[in-house]
Amino acid sequence: MNMKRIAITVSALTFFAMALVGMVMGQDPFVCAIRALIGAVVSYLAARFAVQLAVDVMIKAVVSGSDGTAEEAVTEETRGTEE
Fold first, then answer.
1. How many Cα neighbours within 13 Å face the side chain of 60?
2. At a CB cut-off of 8 Å and minimum separation 6, what does 4 contact?
3. Most buried by CB count within 10 Å: which residue of 40, 61, 69, 75?
């Protein structure tokens, strides 16, 4: 999974959506461009953060499952209900 590609795609879509909304609302083209650029930068940073967070969560889940702690916790819970 390429985090940069996802973030760029989200920011490009945000840029065009914000520019279109600005044009429909009758704003000056320069104002539309500046607002869309700012929105694209913010959405790029937010997308990078969100994707990185999701990857970190998945990695921690895989690591905690590989050392046996997750299986042991599940086994202990099921033993308590079987008795």
1. 6
2. 48
3. 40
Q: Are 3 and 48 in contact (CB under 8 A)?
A: yes
Question: Is the Cβ–Cβ distance between 43 and 11 less than 8 Å?
Answer: yes
* The two three-digit tokens of residue 11, written as one number: 């920011």
- Tokens 């461009």 belong to 33
For 61-78, write each residue's pLDDT tens digit: 888 776 655 555 555 555
The two structure tokens encoding residue 50? 């969100």
Summarize pLDDT for 3-42 with one digit per residue, the tens: 788 889 999 999 999 999 999 999 999 999 999 999 999 9
Token readout for 30 is 């320069």
Measured between alpha carbons, how far is residue 9 from residues 41, 68, 80 in Å?
12, 38, 49
